[in-house]
Each structure stands twice: as C-alpha cells, then as structure tokens.
C-alpha cells in the first residue's frame, strides 16, 4: 500500500492536523489526539472514483423567501450498511471506504453534498458553480422562479474509527480533539468565498433519520444566512444587542439549569418546544467555536460528555437527538449572536416519540408535552447518576 508522510499542523491541546486529498480531489483532514500512537505516514487513497457531482441548485420559496436546495445526488448515499462495509471506517482490502488510514478523528468533504462541491472555478477537481448568489441583497430579493447554484460545502466529521457510537461515547481526550476539529473547520470554512454561515451538528439515532451508526457528525457551510438565524437577528433588532447575556442571567437565576461550570451553563429553555430540549451557553460572548479559548474548550469536553450521558440516563435505551451548534453568520451580527448549542429530542416517553403533525409541521405553532421545569428536574436527577468525566 502506498503511503505519504503528511504535514503536521499543531493546534490547541496537543492536537495535530494532517491535511490530504482523496482520489477524486475532495479534502480529507486527519486530527490526531495528543499522544496519539499514529505516525505521520497515511495510506494514499488509490480508489477509482466517479467524477464529483454537479453542484446542486437551490430554488426560492416565494411564500417565505427561504431557499430550498434540490440535491438529487443524495438519493444514492449509504443506508445502514453492515460493519464490514462501513464507509466511515478505515479502508481494508474488502471495504473501499472513504478514509484510507486508521485515524483518531477525520474530516472530509461529503461525497453526496447538499451544498457544493465547488465554490468557484479555481477548484480543478470539481464542477464550477455556474450561477452563485451575487450578494445578500440578491438572496433576499423575492421573485417567482428564482434559482441559484448551491455553493458551499458539506463535511463529515468522524469522531472515531469504531463502527458504532456517538459523541457521548467518546473519551474525554477524543471529545477534546473533536472540539478542536470543529473550531478549526469553522474558521477555515468561514474564510471560503460565498460562505455566510457555518453549522456543526450531530444527528443520533434512526428515529432522527440517521443512515450510518458510525459515530460522526457533519458541518454545513451555507451560501445564505439560515431562516432560523434570520429570525434571531430580527428578534435581536427588536430587543437588544445583549439578548444572550440577558437570557443567561435569566436562566441561571431560575429552576431550569441542569449543569453549570466555570465557562458553560446548560439549561432547559423557558419556552422549550421538544420533550427533551437543552441549551448550552458560554458565559462570555463568542460568535462561534473558533473564538473559544483553550480553557473553554478544555471544560467543554467533559461538560458536554456528561450532559449527553445524563440525557441517555433518562431511559434504559439511548435517546435519539439532534445536537446543533448555532453560530453567528459570517460578517454579520457577530457582536450580538452568541454561540449556543441546542440539543433536542422527540422522545416523550420510553417508547413514544413526538411527531410533528398538523399544528407544528404546517403552522409552526408548537404545543409542549411536558413543562420545562419538570423536565429540568428529571434531567438533574439523571445527571446525579452520571459520574464526572475524568477519562
């Protein structure tokens, strides 16, 4: 097997970044744990791959102004493959997966992206974006039949080479490496032309729609400010620029806090929509993960692990969830929009899920199943059964 010695880029907490390319030109980046047993040599991706897909198209919904991406190439993505054909495991002679070598954490461009693969004609390995958005004004203009090329990037973040698991099953050291990767990729993707918002997230559980049991998350780099963030920016303009500081003070003074550290607080929000919903805020204003300090990242690793394990301790079986890192847009609202994590689950009982039916799905009018205060009390009790994360 051919190998290359990859350039080492030191990051925080002893994490080392080693960038390379896959056979079709997609970027692959290894993030090595501090003290890793892996060397600098990594196998070359020798697969023969089909050309990268044409960049998807997005269409404007005239009723809302939202942009809807149509990415038909995603129809062919992997769906619950057996362990010996896991596309996120290291390659073997019988498994031509996406990652050539054994790894600690690996990030690569999605083979079936919703956005991208190309931002401009400078990328020789991918089709050019033929009709990208011109500006924010261009995106916000309303008109029937408007389309644009879905410039951007979608990346897969593999938390571990193991076939099954999630962020909550990681070691403290590995969780810290993933956080470093999130911060590094947030900075890199924010600097790409045409990117207006970067969104790291993890989907966990088949009930959420997960198609791979491998422990992983994703990062979307959008060509527009997302509808949820547009609404937040409007709320800030109607209230105050220190809205998040006021929310933190309000929640810390109440009965919905479930976990609090030196740098982070987790709470069930006052107007929670989902049966399980927890928000996490940093104690100082940072716009995104790239702006967090080493001390904040160091605390976040065990804090986040314990929180997820506490959510799992609510029931006898693992809880499906979406863990969404809401970050400020690129070049807009960064002094007001604070980084925040929102964990939501449709699980309303051990064997019951909340389905978004008429009122929620059609009208966006939510009806809660439990009070936020009672859910916070249950979460605190569950967290009391989870030991501090030391390894």
TrEMBL record:
The yes or no answer to whether the keyword Metal-binding is present is: yes
Query: Which species expresses this protein natively?
Result: Microbacterium phycohabitans
- Residues in Galactose-1-phosphate uridyl transferase C-terminal domain copies: 252-383
Q: Hey, which family's this protein in?
A: Belongs to the galactose-1-phosphate uridylyltransferase type 1 family.
Q: Which residues form the signal peptide?
A: none
What EC number(s) has UniProt assigned to this enzyme?
A: 2.7.7.12
Query: A Pfam family name for this chain?
Result: GalP_UDP_transf
An annotated Gene Ontology molecular function? UDP-glucose:hexose-1-phosphate uridylyltransferase activity
The pathway entry for this protein reads as: Carbohydrate metabolism; galactose metabolism
Return the NCBIfam families for the record.
galT_1
According to its UniProt record, this protein's enzyme class is: transferase
Q: Which domain of life is it from?
A: Bacteria
Q: What is this protein called?
A: Galactose-1-phosphate uridylyltransferase
- List cofactor names only: Zn(2+)
- Does Nucleotidyltransferase count among this protein's keywords? yes
Instruction: Cite the record's Low complexity compositional bias ranges.
Output: 118-132
Region (Disordered): which ranges?
Answer: 118-141
What keywords appear on the UniProt entry?
Carbohydrate metabolism, Galactose metabolism, Metal-binding, Nucleotidyltransferase, Transferase, Zinc
- Catalytic activity of the protein: alpha-D-galactose 1-phosphate + UDP-alpha-D-glucose = alpha-D-glucose 1-phosphate + UDP-alpha-D-galactose
Task: Show where the Galactose-1-phosphate uridyl transferase N-terminal domain sits.
Answer: 95-225
């Amino acid at each position: 097997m051919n190998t290359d010695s990859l350039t080492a880029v030191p990051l925080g907490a002893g994490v080392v970044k080693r960038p390379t390319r896959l056979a079709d030109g997609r970027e692959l980046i290894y993030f090595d744990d501090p003290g890793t047993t892996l060397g600098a040599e990594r196998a070359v991706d020798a697969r023969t791959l089909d050309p990268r897909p044409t960049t998807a198209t997005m269409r404007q919904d005239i009723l809302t102004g939202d942009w809807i991406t149509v990415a038909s190439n995603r129809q062919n993505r992997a769906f619950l493959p057996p362990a010996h054909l896991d596309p996120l495991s290291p390659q073997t002679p019988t498994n031509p997966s996406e990652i050539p070598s054994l790894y600690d954490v690996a990030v690569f461009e999605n083979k079936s992206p919703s956005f991208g693969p190309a931002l401009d004609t400078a990328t020789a390995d991918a089709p050019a974006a033929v009709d990208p958005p011109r500006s924010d004004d261009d995106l916000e203009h309303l008109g029937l039949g408007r389309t644009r090329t879905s410039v951007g990037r979608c990346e897969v973040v593999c938390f571990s080479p193991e076939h099954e698991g999630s962020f909550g099953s990681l070691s403290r050291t590995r969780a810290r490496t993933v956080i470093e990767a999130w911060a590094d990729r947030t900075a890199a993707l924010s600097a790409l032309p045409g990117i207006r918002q970067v969104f790291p997230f993890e989907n966990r559980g088949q009930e959420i729609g997960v198609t791979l049991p491998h422990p992983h998350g994703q990062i979307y780099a959008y060509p527009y400010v997302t509808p949820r963030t547009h609404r937040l920016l409007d709320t800030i303009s109607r209230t105050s620029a220190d809205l998040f500081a006021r929310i933190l003070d309000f929640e810390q003074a109440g009965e919905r806090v479930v976990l609090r550290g030196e740098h982070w607080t987790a709470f069930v929000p006052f107007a929670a929509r989902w049966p399980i919903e927890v928000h996490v805020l940093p104690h100082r204003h940072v716009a995104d993960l790239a702006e967090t300090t080493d001390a904040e990242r160091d605390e976040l690793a065990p804090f986040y692990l314990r929180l997820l394990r506490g959510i799992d301790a609510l029931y006898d079986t693992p809880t499906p969830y979406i863990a969404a890192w809401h970050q400020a847009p690129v070049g807009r609202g960064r002094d007001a929009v604070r980084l925040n994590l929102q964990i939501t689950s449709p699980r309303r009982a051990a064997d019951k899920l909340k389905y978004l039916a008429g009122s929620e799905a059609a009208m966006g009018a939510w009806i809660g199943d439990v009070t936020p205060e009672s859910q916070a009390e249950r979460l605190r009790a569950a967290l009391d059964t989870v030991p501090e994360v030391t390894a």
